[in-house]
Design goal:
Low-confidence stretches: none
Mean pLDDT: 95
Number of domains: 2
Helix content: 25-40%
Number of helices: 10
CATH class of the largest domain: Alpha Beta
Shape: globular
Order of helices and strands: EEEHEHHHEEEHHHHEEHEH
CATH topology of the largest domain: Ribosomal Protein S5, domain 2
Radius of gyration: 19 Å
Distance between the termini: 19 Å
Number of strands: 10
Structural class: alpha+beta
Length: 284
């Protein structure tokens, strides 16, 4: 019997390391990064429609529905599969826009996997990941659902097992524009490539984000959050977004630090995960 509805998580990710090792002729940057999921994120509620329409509620501020990655993912899956069904999709949004937590990409991946199940398509993860890559470089890691070492523009993935500490994530209330970061003349673009084995041996103390100095310079609020958090625990920027995170060994330490975060910043505690909560929910 076809499913009547699905409720699925769209988890956040952190970049535990982010190196920019070059720039391609097409303008994209060559990266090396470590992706890890969090047990915190958005939630999508999906119901099938018989008329082929894709309807999203609520609309996001300043993001037309046609440009939302949820709608784009659903329509891409319709085109790829020839499916004539549609969907009502309700989004519970918790992750900040432009925060570097992969919210839009995660929403797209949850839409692809959720509708694949809801529409009874049974497409392979490889096919769904390839479709996701047409929507954004971070979508495939959410589709595959395992912590990963990533190269290229972030699409060449090798599953890894990372430590699973507790994180305090702070959003200082600004939206970082990724094109502004990657287009900044001062951005480091020539970090020497390293092997995955060396990256994993280096561990958290040696991990860094090459985008961090540029984001600090362009967005003083992010610099303030990094300075505040870094005085209390090892802190880093995630992705090219506004969110910064601190790594702690125990939940009680993370909860204690969360209680100290200034109230004008959004903050939360989450556990690092090597398997995506989306895949746990789907039972894949």
């Amino acid at each position: 019997m076809p499913l009547a509805h699905l409720t699925l998580p769209a988890p956040a990710k952190l970049n535990r390391l982010l190196h920019i090792v070059g720039r391609r002729p097409d303008g994209y940057h060559e990266l090396q990064t470590l992706f890890q999921f969090l047990d915190h994120g958005d939630t999508l509620h999906l119901r099938p429609r018989d008329d082929g329409e894709i309807r999203l509620t609520p609309s996001l501020p300043d993001v037309p529905d046609a440009a939302n990655l949820i709608v784009r993912a659903a329509r891409a899956l319709q085109a790829e599969s020839g499916c004539r069904l549609g969907a009502d999709i309700h989004l519970e949004k918790r992750l900040p826009l432009g925060g570097g937590l992969g919210g839009g990409s995660s929403n797209a991946a949850t839409t692809l996997l959720g509708l694949d199940r809801l529409w009874d398509l049974d497409l392979s993860l490889e096919r769904l990941a390839a479709l996701g890559l047409t929507l954004g470089a971070d979508v495939p890691v959410f589709v595959h659902g395992h912590a990963a070492w990533a190269e290229g523009i972030g699409e060449r993935l090798t599953p890894v097992a990372l430590d699973t500490p507790w994180f305090v994530v702070v959003h200082p209330g600004v939206t970082v524009a990724t094109p502004a970061v990657f287009g900044a003349p001062q951005l480091t673009r020539d970090t020497p490539p390293i092997t995955m084995a060396r990256a994993l041996q280096g561990g958290a103390p040696g991990w860094r984000n090459d985008c961090e100095p540029t984001v600090r310079a362009l967005y003083p609020a992010v610099a303030d959050a990094l300075a505040w958090l870094g005085e209390r625990a090892p802190a880093m920027l995630t992705g090219t977004g506004a969110c910064v995170f601190a790594r702690l060994s125990r939940e009680v330490e993370a909860r204690g630090l969360l209680a100290e975060v200034p109230t004008h910043w959004l903050a939360f505690v989450a556990r690092g995960l090597n398997r995506s909560p989306l895949h746990a929910a789907l039972g894949r």
